[in-house]
């Protein structure tokens, strides 16, 4: 089993989009996947409802609030991968999930200072969880919504993060700013659920590379 926590100190960074696309791909790869909702918003529940209306395969969504370490651990006994989607701010759900997670990713748009500046506090929170006992935790920064004409900015930030071991390491995989992600999410799908769309091949490759880099697939 593997527990993947997706969290940030800011909303709107692509957490839920990343979560559902990984869930769909892993499910299609034969993994038993549970999406774990740790925020009061209804994004994942709405996505699941739309998915059912489309007749797409069910991906279970569980939810819990406050100290969610035990509910996550219980869910992990029923699945190969549990993907935890936390709200976009520092909260009890996020901090308790860090105590049991195997992998942590914080998505940011590298060209946004508002998002990049969250990394100081996120890094401190993650390092505290590691020092408090979760030595198995592997934390990463995921660059999302990367524009094709702003790759130099992403490269500069990656270089800065790699320059000092105190920072969370940036993943090599980057998620582009592709409308297909939003279009699929709007109908309760992931990019691996559809056969035709603009930039679909690129989007599918990005999700597959991400799953592989995180060690979620062989």
From TrEMBL:
It holds the Pfam family CbiA. InterPro entries: CobQ/CobB/MinD/ParA_Nub-bd_dom, DNA_Partitioning_ATPase, P-loop_NTPase. CDD domains: ParAB_family (cd02042). Residues 5-162 form the CobQ/CobB/MinD/ParA nucleotide binding domain. It comes from the Bacteria. This is CobQ/CobB/MinD/ParA nucleotide binding domain protein. It comes from Candidatus Erwinia dacicola.
């Amino acid at each position: 089993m593997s527990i993947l926590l997706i969290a940030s100190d800011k909303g709107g960074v692509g957490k839920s989009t990343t979560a559902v696309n990984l869930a769909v791909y892993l499910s299609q790869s034969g993994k038993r996947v549970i999406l774990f909702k740790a925020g009061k918003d209804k994004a994942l529940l709405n996505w699941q409802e739309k998915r059912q209306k489309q007749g797409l395969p069910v991906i279970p969504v569980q939810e819990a609030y406050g100290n969610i370490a035990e509910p996550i651990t219980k869910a992990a006994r029923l699945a190969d991968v549990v993907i935890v989607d936390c709200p976009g701010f520092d909260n009890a759900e996020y901090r308790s999930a860090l105590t049991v997670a195997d992998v942590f990713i914080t998505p940011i748009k590298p060209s946004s200072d508002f998002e990049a500046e969250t990394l100081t506090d996120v890094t401190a929170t993650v390092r505290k969880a590691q020092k408090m006992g979760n030595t198995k935790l592997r934390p990463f920064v995921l660059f999302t919504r990367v524009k094709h004409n702003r790759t130099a900015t992403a490269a500069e930030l990656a270089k800065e993060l790699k320059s000092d071991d105190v920072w969370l390491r940036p993943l090599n995989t980057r998620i582009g700013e592709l409308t297909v992600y939003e279009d699929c999410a709007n109908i309760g799908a992931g990019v691996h659920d559809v056969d035709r769309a603009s930039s679909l091949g690129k989007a599918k490759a990005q999700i597959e590379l991400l799953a592989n880099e995180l060690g979620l697939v062989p």
